[in-house]
Write a structure and sequence with these properties.
The protein is an all-beta fold. It has strands at residues 25-30, 37-41, 45-49, 56-61, 73-78, 85-89, 93-97, 104-109, 114-119, 125-130, 143-148, 154-159, 164-169, 175-180, 185-190, 196-201, 207-212, 219-223, 228-231, 238-240. It has 2 domains: 15-159, YVTN repeat-like/Quinoprotein amine dehydrogenase (Methylamine Dehydrogenase, Chain H); 168-241, Thrombin, subunit H, CATH 2.40.10. The chain starts with 24 loop residues before the first strand and ends with a strand.
């Protein structure tokens, strides 16, 4: 008789190891279509892998070339259409790469190292969060929003005043919201102008994460008080706890 229980995989026996990096892995990201996995490492490379075979598809040597990072890579992010990979580094820059050719497309001088980055749904904006342990004048934990243009130019649209825990884009890509460890407010920002357009008080003990529902009709928040709450983004009213 078959057992009703399922065996638990041995985490020490990986399904498919990816062998190639010579330094610690600092970031990992699936491509939007799920066909590739991108990994970043302290060995100054970003590698793309086939998740089905474990074979390396592409390697971006981000420092050993005329263009590229001069510090450790701290974050990677695919653009929504999968045509670009963004990398953030301790060298205070973000660089955009073509994952097919491995060529650098664009470089953004962020002036301070970033530990996190995220594309807007349209791919026309890129938000970065400044890392801790940076110079004393650095806006640690602040969001910087960059407008990405087809001609390779970029524009810094805003730097938030509050220390940000998390950032989430509206499904339409025209606005985004941030939560802060400084207070219990969730702020809404206009991605085109960089202006704050709304501030709602979301009761909870230090909101640490926020997420929109796919249709944009609900916001979920997680807090240090061990709760997850659902909110109406139009009224700011709590719907469920």
């Amino acid at each position: 008789m078959p057992s009703d229980t399922h065996s638990t995989p041995d985490v020490d026996d990986p399904l498919r190891p990816f062998v190639g990096h010579t330094g610690k892995i600092t970031a990992i990201e699936y491509s939007p279509d799920g066909r590739l996995i991108a990994t970043a490492s302290e060995d100054a490379t970003v590698r793309l892998w086939d998740p089905l075979t474990g074979q390396q598809f592409q390697k971006l040597d981000t420092t050993y070339r005329a263009e590229g990072h001069t510090g450790k890579i701290t974050a990677i992010e695919y653009s929504p259409d999968g045509r670009l990979i963004a990398t953030a580094s301790e060298d205070a820059s973000v660089r955009l790469w073509d994952p097919q050719t491995g060529q650098q497309i664009q470089m953004i001088e962020t002036h301070w190292p970033a530990h996190s980055l995220t594309f807007s749904p349209s791919g026309l904006h890129l938000a970065t969060i400044c890392a801790e342990g940076t110079p004393t004048d650095a806006p640690v934990g602040k969001v910087m929003l960059w407008g990405i243009k087809e001609d390779g130019e970029e524009k810094r649209l805003l730097t938030t005043r509050n220390t940000v825990h998390s950032i989430e884009w509206f499904p339409d890509g025209h606005r985004f919201i941030t939560s802060s460890k400084d207070d219990d407010y969730i702020r809404t920002w206009d991605a085109e102008t960089g202006e704050q357009v709304r501030k709602d008080l979301f009761r909870g003990d230090n909101i640490t994460a926020i997420e929109y529902s796919p249709d944009g009709r609900l916001i979920a928040t997680a807090s240090l008080d061990d709760t997850v709450r659902l909110w109406d983004p139009v009224t700011g009213q709590a719907l469920q706890k």
